[in-house]
Specification:
This protein is mostly beta strands and about 775 residues long. The chain has a six-stranded mixed β-sheet with strand order 29-28-36-35-31-33, with no helix packed on it. A five-stranded mixed β-sheet has the order 10-17-16-12-14, with no helix packed on it. It has a five-stranded mixed β-sheet with strand order 19-26-25-21-23, with no helix packed on it. Strand 28 and strand 29 form a beta hairpin.
Length: about 775
């Protein structure tokens, strides 16, 4: 007979003794037509061709429904000789190959093993049978001998778990420790079974259960350490202890994580000047369960400067707050490093987090409230004492300082600590009339102070009192500035743009600085009176020129930018010394320059509107106040200024307050001028409306009071001796257009700038606060201040 392929059972043939290849074969066709059934030749004594024996002629399999399949069983085939060319297994005609049975064959020579696999357990309970025929064939495919094997397969009912093995996860030590999952059970309706667990953390349903269905199993991970844990759930038939089902449960436990609000900590800020500690929040991923923690600060440079507000406690899923700071007194300047080790103990397992800490400290500098002082001695009036504040840029108390003077006519407080006053006293006894200069040097014996402050002091000695009022009608100009050390006032003359310098006591013309080509718009001076700054609107660019106030020589030019033609603002400049470093602050674009190098800082005080901004600088040099002009209502800004050699930008400017119309009545309109009291507590403004001079609390720019004026206020100026002067474009006022008050608002005098209108921002005090300078359509007027 012919042979063909077999798709249901795997059949392996064998080779004759002289062959080397093994052929897979299937016996097919009408087996009844073969010499089957074990028949041999008619009476011949020779063994029949293809003869073989079976180790068994029947196999019985049993498995529980939807459970683990039964173990495979084998039938051993032994050939009588090598007369057969192939051996195989198959199904006789009319027998449908069952899907639940798989056959494989292996072997060689005269012995072959047929393995039978009952491969399915999801059949309906009951007994299934089939017959498999094993036979041999010759080289032509003719069947030589066959034997039948009877197969019986019983699917019995019992308790069975149909749920795949679950893999759960949890966090060691967490309050979220009870997890549940569903176990699907297959069992006869009346069958009772019990569930047990191999581990206490796996909690099966309690008591006897009946029949099939879904059951809840609880996993309690509260005591499990990090890692993998396994347990076995076993279901046992109450009536038949051999009827069981098992389920492997796996739980992957992770260690709880210490979560911190910061991955690293920088103290001191970009500037190295910030002393406020950094708040660190941290939590442990254990829900409501709290565990002990410790925080250990260590440093790798600079000594034991790293501090924490708390070093131990308990932590759970909600934030714990700790302030991280530095003992700045242990550091000098530069960058220092350290780390914080945060450690929690959870069920005996340590959970750690390490945070790098960097402390940046800018060198501490002394800062004297003024580096220019003017004294004067006249027969009827003398100004010979000035009290200055000595601060340090880190606001530390108790920093020692020492002062010395360069002239015998000047005496100073020799020693003190920051916060103590530095008193300068001039003694003109024995001095002839003339102008005298001296320097006061302030240093600190502390190695943490990195600078020296120098105060330039001028003393004017004259034998005749100055005239009460000096009128200079030919001095046509509207922009003035007074030298803070010398008895000089500078005026931009129009239309020539020359700068005229006059003696503030006599009105004598001292010198003239010719125009340089552009339109000069503003004047400012350094605090020591050694630099004159001139704002100039050029044809193609706006610039500020630094001039030698004695010769008018241009030392340096600061290019502010392209000329702005609309709405035609004027370039205003102001001198400041944030953290004892000289800078030049300009308006229009708000640019700030390094006054010592001319470099442009990236920081700026740009306002909302591209217009004039009048500038006032606090005596501690940390704040700049501006008010815009031409806008109704006006806006007042406060900027913080800090300088640091550590900061990438060098200078840090931060807009802190923007105060505009807030529902209060009579908010300033068309701002004209702005000034600060020497104490930095009160801010004064003059604006076109209302017709008065407003007083503001400088710390938050809230209006607290006002001083009387008249239409239209356009000047406000303060001096260090408790004086504030306000002026108005009010030429028709019979009592005058200048009001002088104390800082607190007590009226002192009413003066007049002349017969014509007072120009905006032209009102200035002399350096010794005894003279008031004003410019109007009537010319320059210098008069005694009360």
């Amino acid at each position: 007979m012919r042979v063909s392929g077999f798709s249901r059972a795997t059949v392996r043939g064998f080779a004759a003794a002289c062959r080397t290849a093994v052929t897979l074969m299937l016996i097919a066709g009408a087996l009844s037509a073969c010499h089957g059934g074990g028949g041999g030749g008619g009476g011949s004594s020779a063994p029949p061709a293809g003869g073989f024996t079976l180790s068994t002629s029947s196999l019985t399999f049993s498995a529980k429904f939807a459970a683990v399949p039964a173990a495979p069983q084998s039938v051993l085939v032994t050939l009588a000789n090598t007369s057969a060319a192939a051996v195989g297994a198959g199904y006789a005609p009319g027998i449908v190959p069952p899907s639940w049975l798989t056959i494989t064959v292996s072997g060689s020579g005269l012995q072959y093993s047929f393995a039978f696999f009952a491969n399915q357990t999801n059949l309906a309970p009951g007994t299934y049978t089939t017959t498999v025929t094993i036979g041999t064939s010759d080289t032509n495919g003719n069947i030589l001998q066959t034997r039948d094997v009877q197969i019986s397969y019983t699917i019995r009912e019992g308790v069975t778990i149909t749920t795949p093995p679950p893999v759960l996860s949890g966090v060691s030590g967490s309050s979220f420790s009870n997890q549940t999952f569903q176990v699907n059970v297959a069992a006869p309706a009346g069958l009772q079974w019990l569930a047990t667990s191999s581990q206490p953390w796996l909690q099966p349903p309690a008591g006897a259960q009946t029949g099939p269905g879904s059951r809840t199993v609880t996993v309690d991970t509260s005591t499990l350490p990090p890692g993998q844990a396994t347990a076995t759930l076993t279901l046992t038939n109450v009536a038949d202890s051999s009827d069981t089902a098992t389920l492997l449960v796996t739980v992957n436990m992770s260690a709880p994580i210490l979560t911190t609000s910061l991955s690293s900590i920088t103290l001191g800020g970009d500037s190295g000047l910030e002393t406020v500690p950094v708040s660190l929040a941290f939590s442990l991923g254990t829900g409501a369960n709290a565990y002990p923690w410790t925080m250990t600060p260590t440093t790798t440079s600079g000594g034991n400067w790293l501090t924490v507000s708390s070093a131990a406690g308990t932590v759970a899923g909600s934030n714990v707050m700790v302030d991280v700071g530095a003992d700045w007194a242990l550091l000098v300047s530069g960058t220092y490093t350290g780390q914080l080790e945060l450690r929690a103990s959870v069920n005996g397992v340590a959970v750690t987090r390490t945070l790098p800490v960097t402390a940046r400290i800018e060198g501490n500098r002394l800062l004297v409230s003024d580096t220019g002082v003017a004294f004067s001695s006249f027969p009827s009036r003398q100004v010979l004492t000035r009290t200055l504040a000595v601060r340090n840029t880190r606001d530390e108390t108790g920093v020692p300082w020492q002062a010395s003077e360069s002239a015998t006519w000047l005496q100073t407080t020799l020693t003190g600590n920051t916060g103590d006053p530095l008193v300068l006293t001039a003694d003109p006894t024995g001095l002839s009339a003339g102008q005298y200069f001296a320097n006061v040097t302030v240093i600190s014996p502390s190695a943490r102070i990195v600078n020296t402050e120098t105060i330039r002091v001028g003393l004017t000695v004259r034998t005749m009192d100055p005239a009460s009022v000096v009128n200079l009608p030919t001095a046509n100009g509207s922009v003035t500035v007074a030298n803070p050390v010398e008895p000089e006032v500078f005026l931009i003359r129009y239309p020539s743009n020359d700068i005229e310098v006059y003696d503030v006591y006599s009105g004598a013309s001292l010198r003239t600085f010719p125009a340089t080509g552009g339109v000069r718009t503003s004047l400012a001076m350094s605090a020591d009176g050694l630099s004159l700054y001139v704002g100039e609107d050029g044809a193609s660019s706006d610039q500020v020129h630094e001039l030698d106030p004695e010769t008018g020589t241009v030392r340096r030019s600061f290019v502010v930018g392209t000329n702005v033609s609309f709405p035609s603002p004027s370039l205003i400049a102001a001198y400041a010394r944030p953290d004892a470093h000289p800078v030049l602050v300009t308006t229009i674009q708000g640019q700030i320059f390094d006054a010592t190098t001319g470099a442009l800082f990236t920081a700026s005080i740009a306002g909302t509107y591209l217009l004039d901004h009048w500038i006032a600088v606090s005596s501690d040099q940390r704040y700049v106040f501006t008010m815009n002009s031409g806008i109704s209502p006006a806006t007042i800004y406060r900027y913080g200024l800090r300088y640091s050699s550590l900061a990438p930008a060098g200078l840090i400017a931060t807009r802190q307050i923007e105060a505009s119309l807030d529902g209060q009545p009579a908010w300033p309109e068309n701002g004209q001028d702005i000034a600060l009291s020497e104490s930095d507590e009160v801010l004064y403004t003059a604006s076109g409306f209302p017709n008065r001079f407003d007083l503001w609390r400088a710390i938050n720019v809230t209006r607290v009071h006002y001083l009387d004026g008249a239409p239209y206020p356009n000047n406000v100026e303060t001096c260090w001796n408790d004086r504030v002067a306000g002026g108005a474009d009010a030429s028709g006022e019979a009592l005058g257009d200048i009001w002088v008050y104390t800082w607190g608002g007590a009226p002192l005098a009413r003066l007049d700038s002349g017969t014509d209108a007072l120009f905006a921002r032209s009102l200035k005090f002399s350096g010794d606060c005894t003279r008031l300078v004003s410019a109007s359509g009537s010319g320059l007027r210098i008069q005694a201040a009360p």
